[in-house]
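Continuing the series of single-chain predictions for the mutant panel. This is the parent chain; the variants come on the following pages.
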Amino acid sequence: MATQTSPKSPPIGEILHGIGQDVRTIAIDELELSRRKLGDFMESLLIKASIALLGATVVLIGFGMLCMVAVAALEPVIHPLWLRLLLMAIVYIAIGGTAVWLYAKKMTSMHGPDLEKQLSEVGETIDAVKNGLEH
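Parent structure:
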């Protein structure tokens, strides 16, 4: 009768080394994914801020020109030039300040990329490795 021999299993050190390498690879991949998500968010934010700045500049100039037209149009009603300019400056500041306040409120409510999942997975992987090495 022939005896059946089972294949020799690798030493525990090699198994632990392989597991450690796999865990390291997973952690590096999760951190790289988080870095990419954060980079994409920052790029998107920069593009949006540039567009908003350009738009705000165009609107500011256009609104200033409209105020100057209103100053000229109010001449028959309000004769002193200084008073017409003062009134339109107040209107200009009030509308511009309100627009800035609303935009700032919108910007402060923005949230960054959701990295909770990646960070928790990295933490869980580290905890699993620690627990595996302790037992």
